[in-house]
Design brief:
By secondary structure, the protein is mainly alpha-helical. It is 65% helix and 3% strand. The chain has a domain at 202-395. The protein is globular, with a radius of gyration of 26 Å. It starts with a helix and ends with a helix. The model is unreliable at 427-432 (pLDDT under 50).
Length: 437
Amino acid sequence: MGRNLFSTQFMVNEAMSLLTRLQSVKPFALTMPMVVAANMPDEALKGITNLMVSGNRELKRKVLDFIKWVKHPASRNISDEEMQAKFALLKLRFNALLDELDIFADVTSQRSEHETGVWVAGLDALAADALALKGNYYKSPPLICFLERGHGAAIRKARTRLPSGTPSPVAVIQVPRERMVGSGIASSLVHEVGHQGAALLNLVNSIRSDIKQWQVTSKYKIACDLYYRWLSEIIADFWAMAHLGIGATSGLINVVSLPRYFMFRIKMDDPHPFPWIRVMLSLAFGKALYPHAQWKRYEKLWLSMYPLNRLDKKSMAVIDELILAMPDFVSLVINHSPAILKGNRLVDIFPYKTRQPAQLQFLYNTWRFSPEAISNAPPSLVFAVIGQAHADANISAKTESKLLGDWLTRWAFLRSENRSRKESREIMYEIKNLIND
């Protein structure tokens, strides 16, 4: 049954309304007020702008094709139901475009906040530093950070699918606002960076292959199964440890210090280690990378805060096996040598050798009396030094917070000073094309 004139005109008007709403979707460079230092990295802004431009153009073309199809004489025998079904798909694509806009709007709108916006840009610099490894094993995607309410951090990795199905051009890292008071923020942030780095190196799959081989000869079958399941989170914690030293553990303790009920909830199908064992793993990796008496002190503290004496026999049996298997597992991870690392072990690609506790303590004492000596230090090293001072109780919470706020501001300023004029011109060219369309 064919359509009448009214249904045709109705559908054309609906499609034209979609076009009108589409024209109101503006690039963030035109809508988000912020100081220059709070801007996103040019590469990130360019990627997001290109994503919006291409999505906008694609949808505009589809809407115009739909209007042309509706008006064409050959479509007069198409039913209203079929016409509406085709239009509904256009609306879904439009809504997906808006969903993507909202994802990045959460990141950019915050950068107009006084002081916070600049600090978030400083976190961008920390994230980029923690992802940039010597050896050219991968091309780092741009990373952008934002603060969110809640307890935990999270990442939407670059190249994962957005609501429209398009790969994300950037990695978006969410960190809790409540952590912006000290060096512990680095533990959460670099953990999330570790998820991105592990994906770029395909570490989860390659280390799991080693675990399967280890499991054949190991007597710790339950521990092997759990370490296999938890591997993604463990690698991310290892990434933080390899950059930050004991600051990774002290930050982790701050995150997972929950009521006792939550600390020992062992779920055999959970991809996350239960909090108590997660800290024990962090301590074990710390001992392996940075031999020092401090790890024993922190382990004793952790065991005193969450003693094992009230656990049931089943839970204790699992924990005992995990602890017994832990040295072998830690060795397996740090000595892992996949083909992508070109003969290097996993531990070799990180700067842990220059971040031993004694070196971090020396740097802190040097920087206290010669602040200019810190000017060229990479952000992750600055956080490692301050994290070590925090662990040694050599810095007050007030001083720690002020130092980190000052350095986040400095890194944001330096990045804004070093912006690529070529990247900025390319962004403005895309924006001009979008406006002209």
